[in-house]
Amino acid sequence: MNFRRKILRRYIPAALALLLLAAAAAPFLHADRFGHAIRVALEAALHRDVEIGEVRFTLVRGPAFAIGNVVIHEDPAFGIEPLAYVERLEARPSLLALLRGRLEFASLRLVSPSVNLAKNMEPSGRWNFEGLIAGAAIAALPNIQMDTGRINFKIGDTKSVFYFMNTDLEISSPGLSGMGDLRFSGEAARADRASRGLGNFTGRGHYGESGVDLNLQLEKTAIGEITALIYGRDAGIHGLISSRAHLSGPLHDAKIRGDLYLEDVHRWDLMPPHGGGWNLAFQGRLNFAGQFLELESFSQNGKPLPLAVRFRASDYLSQPRWGVSVNCNRLPVEPLIEVARHMGAGLPENWTLAGNVEGAVSYSHPGDWQGQIVFQEASFSLFDAPALRMQRGRMFFEGGRVRLASSSVHAVDGDEATLDGAYDLDSQAFHFSITTESMNVASLRAQVALAAVPLLEQVRTGSWKGRLRYDRTVAASGEPAGVRDGWSGRFQLTGAEIPIPGIPKPLEVASANIALNGPRLEVDRLHAAVGEIRLQGDYRYEPRAVRPHRFRLNVPELDVEELERLFLPTLRRSRGIIARTLGITRSGTPAWLRDRHASGTIRVAVLRLGDLRLDRFQTHVLWDGARVELGEAGGHWQGASANGRVSIDLTESAPVYRSTFDLNSAGWKGGKLDLQVALETSGIGNELLSNLESHGSFRAQSLELPPSASISAASGSYLLNWEGGSPRLQISALEAVLDDVLYSGRGVAQPDGRLLLQLSNGEKQLRLGGTLARLRVEQP
After folding, report:
1. Cα distance from N-terminal residue to C-terminal residue, the chain
2. Which residues make Cβ contacts (< 8 Å) with residue 6, sequence separation at least 6?
3. What percent of the chain is modeled with pLDDT above 70?
4. b vs e for 506-517, b when ≥16 Cβ sit within 10 Å of the residue's Cβ?
5. Residue 273 preceded by cis peptide, ω within 30
6. Of 32, 97, 438, 602, whose CB neighbour count within 10 A is largest?
7. Predicted confidence (pLDDT) per residue in 441-498, tens digit
8. How far is Cα 31 from Cα 22, in angstroms, rounded to an integer?
9. How, if at all, do strands 179-190 and 143-155 pair?
10. How many CB atoms lie within 10 A of CB 724?
11. DSSP for 644-701?
12. Alpha-carbon separation of residue 760 from 184, 698, 737 (angstroms)
């Protein structure tokens, strides 16, 4: 016994080592001398001409031939393209046949092959694999295994766009029983898309001359991949799909029964039956040879389905034609809207439709939609607006267009309107319109908010009447990607309030005519007020312009102090306690001010600044963020004309004003006075005077000064600033002509406010004194 154990311990490792050495060396041993016999045996098994490359031995899976670069030619009845290209073929001989002196193969293993399953165009329409499983051929068929292969489909000379990749296949020989085992797994794909799988399919069962008996499974797959497989593109559908089915019977009339399971499709959980997904039981038949498939849903408990589906497809490998029909029986419409949205329908996100729906709709491809559905006791809401109730509404499917017939709707407060719309299924273009004779403006505010029009999205109160239309389009192929949407229409707005950033009081609109065209806005015949200021005019919003806001305003009367009070939040922006403690004067520019870009004209019949009255004032306004320019400003004061420009810098916490203007032919001291003025100041209220700095020049003619002096001409320059709470005025380069004698000199304001001017002609002194209003000659 010990001797026997010693023998086993000594020779078994040696035998194993020898066996491993043989297995390792076998691939390097050429077997080309068997090439002719191998080729003949392969041709006998496959009933096709075969070309082979280099032949070697292999022992990895048992004694076999490893054959490279194999080409299995096609039966001429199915075309000239070979049946298969095989990178490597492992052919395992039948030991029983070898004992009888014949070379036959018990199994064939195809590594990384490309196989063409072809159907000829003869009236019978046979497939090239049918000859292998018919008559005596099926009994002699060796076991076939495919690893990581590609299966193509051909109809006549045309190769289908559909194929299977990464395919593993096992087919066992039926033998005398007439039925063989079949196992399959592969990823469906399209030739016109990047090489990747679009759904993993598996199958297991039996086959034979009488037909097939298979259990098929679609593993859990993104719905978008299945739509990409069918349509050639991802339709943007969210969710997962899986299926199990049983296929039995002859290939020309196989029965199908199974379940389709959808999950993670938003809102499907609201549809009967309740749950995390939706299970659809189906049954039907398949004619594989004739490329015809028919499926329909059925109720497993015999109760009527709230949603019944029927599907048909023909020529699905060559020129796919298919159709689907859906019947609804008082089905809740809300989940259908969500499903449509997640299946690629370009419906607005904040658009809701509630109620019940019934009717029938069908779709065929290539073809279009047909049918109609009826909404019962529905409610319609757009962009969080108050719901509009619809007692009954009809939706028609007309080709590639879905149309909502004109329907009467009612708002929660009883206002009535008419609603209609349409949706293009191909382009995803969508529009609807709402018409009313009177409706609360709150609905309007919510509806136009999508257009992002700065004025109307802020409307608070009032009413409107007219027609609004919403359009949504998706960029076509070759155009810049994106969705274009917006509102258009004309309506009248009355009794509305619109807040304006930077002004504490709203714009109170008595009436206005408004036209919308996408993001563009036109307001005509505007009658409104802001605080105590009444105004009329028009307004335009052009989003692509450098200054989108454009206006023309007419104001009957304007008090500058009232205007300053209205714009106080803009002119003086508060600072935090830390900034005030540290004495930091600069404040950040708020977004509403930074983004304000406007231009326009303002006309004021009477402009008041304290005791100063300026008639027929008008100016052109350019407002860019924190900088405001009043150009071409002009008016009339006591018969004189004033023209100039004003700039306002709102960068700091308090405004900074800079101005230049000319005053022409102003009456003064019996003559005429011309002024050229430049000034700068900052602050609010009394700060404007204490921070004032000004300089300029003047020219006067025909002045009469008491007691009896006549100055025919005078000119000079001035400098004015404020020190210690009092003004400081200096006059330089002063020249005056008195009795045809030229005097020159200078002047300065005294601490008591009197002005003292001293002039000389070189021989004679001339002194003038007093206030500007009471200036007189003190020393002739």
Report:
1. 158
2. none
3. 82
4. bbbbeebebebe
5. yes
6. 602
7. 766 555 544 444 445 567 778 888 999 888 888 766 555 556 677 778 898 999 988 8
8. 15
9. unpaired
10. 7
11. EEEEEE-SSSS-EEEEEEEEEEEEETTEEEEEEEEEEEESSTTHHHHT-EEEEEEEEE
12. 119, 19, 11
Contact call for residues 568 and 684 (beta carbons, < 8 A) = yes
Cα-based distances in Å from 434 to 141, 405, 408, 449, 726? 72, 12, 10, 15, 65
DSSP 238: -
Q: What is the pLDDT of residues 677-709, one digit of tens each?
A: 999 999 888 888 888 999 999 999 998 888 888
CA nearest neighbour of 483 among 346, 343, 340:
346
Query: Where is mean pLDDT largest: 188-202, 372-386, 640-654?
Result: 640-654
Contacts by 626-631, CB closer than 8 A, 24 or more apart: 626/589, 626/593, 626/594, 626/650, 626/651, 627/651
Give the separation between CA 600 and CA 547, rounded to whole angstroms. Answer: 10
Considering 86-90, 361-365, 723-727, the range whose residues carry the highest mean pLDDT is 86-90
Tokens of 732: 């330089």
Q: Of 51, 47, 49, nearest to 69 (Cα)?
A: 51
Longest dimension (CA), the chain: 159
Rounded to whole angstroms, the Cα distance separating 425 from 269 reads 25
The answer to whether 530 and 497 have CB atoms below 8 angstroms apart is: no
Are 279 and 297 a contacting pair, CB within 8 Å?
A: no
485 Cβ partners below 8 Å, 6+ apart?
A: 348, 450, 470, 471, 472, 473
Shortest CA distance to 544 belongs to which of 609, 481, 597, 623? Answer: 597
Tell which phi-psi region holds residue 178, choosing left (phi > 0), alpha (psi between -120 and 50) or beta. left
Q: What is the pLDDT of residues 150-181, one digit of tens each?
A: 988 888 888 888 888 999 998 887 766 677 88
Per-residue pLDDT, 537: 96
Computed over every residue of the chain, the mean pLDDT equals: 81
Tell me how far CA of residue 5 lies from CA of 8, 10, 11, 18, in angstroms: 5, 8, 10, 20
Compute CA 424 distance to the chain's CA centroid, rounded to the nearest angstrom.
Answer: 18
For 135, other C-beta atoms within 10 Å of its C-beta total: 10
